[in-house]
Design brief:
Number of helices: 11
Helix content: 40-55%
Radius of gyration: 17 Å
Strand order of the largest sheet: 2-1-3-4-5
Pfam family, one: Response_reg
Protein name: Response regulator
Largest sheet: 5 strands, parallel
Keywords: DNA-binding, Phosphoprotein, Transcription, Transcription regulation
Strand content: 5-15%
Number of strands: 5
């Protein structure tokens, strides 16, 4: 059973998300928070698999709450919900450690699939949309640090190819097809890449690729 904490300052939004999740045989809403401060506290208490996080809330916003939840080192993963597909706040949330984001007007099946993906350790943002976000806010990329440069140097040539492909918007199937690899091999490469660059998931791997200059905004 996947446990979910719902965080939103709008009661109707919380109710709608709760009804949708409770209708799934493999999900349950374990709590509701109305702001970021409550979200941090309840995440520590309830340890949900997924925190469904609104961004714009009074008091502590979803970005700071996401940062604190991720930095706590717990197992809970954050799925951010935003109103606009190129919302600067959503980008900041990804940088804070969120595992992806969805639009609030996503279809119910998309939201459910997103929660399942995040709970399983995947990112729910398509690489193409991630690239679109980074392109929109590329002037804010800080440039690579010495630590990032060392981690990039640890990658093999093939791992760099796979990381570049991820950041370029290719799915695992497309990477396997274009690089003439088995899809299981691609997944193994991605697992090693995430470990070597110290990334939580595919989203952070894409951001790492841009930060280090491996891929440039177009």
């Amino acid at each position: 059973m996947t446990t979910v904490l719902i965080v939103d300052d709008q009661a109707l939004q919380r109710m709608g998300f709760s009804m949708l999740l409770e209708a799934q045989p493999d999900m349950t809403a374990v709590g509701e928070a109305t702001n970021g401060g409550e979200a941090v506290r309840m995440t520590a208490e309830l340890r949900p698999d997924v925190v469904l996080m609104d961004v714009r809330m009074p008091g502590m916003d979803g970005i700071e709450a996401t940062r604190r939840i991720v930095e706590s080192g717990g197992r809970s993963r954050v799925l951010v919900l935003t109103t606009f597909d190129l919302d600067e706040y959503a980008y900041d949330a990804l940088r804070a450690g969120a595992s992806g984001f969805l639009l609030k007007d996503a279809l119910p099946e998309e939201l459910v699939a997103g929660v399942r993906a995040v709970a399983a350790g995947d990112a729910v943002i398509s690489p193409g949309l991630t690239r679109k976000l980074i392109d929109a806010f590329s002037d804010r990329l800080p440039g690579h640090s010495p630590g990032q440069q060392r981690r990039l140097a640890d990658l093999t040539e093939r791992e760099r190819e796979v990381l570049t492909a991820i950041a370029s918007g290719w799915t695992n199937h497309e990477i396997a097809d274009r690089l003439h690899l088995a899809e299981s091999t691609v997944k193994s490469h991605i697992g090693r890449i995430l470990t070597k660059i110290d990334a939580r998931d595919r989203v952070q791997a894409v951001i790492f690729a841009y930060d280090t200059g491996l891929v440039r905004p177009t």
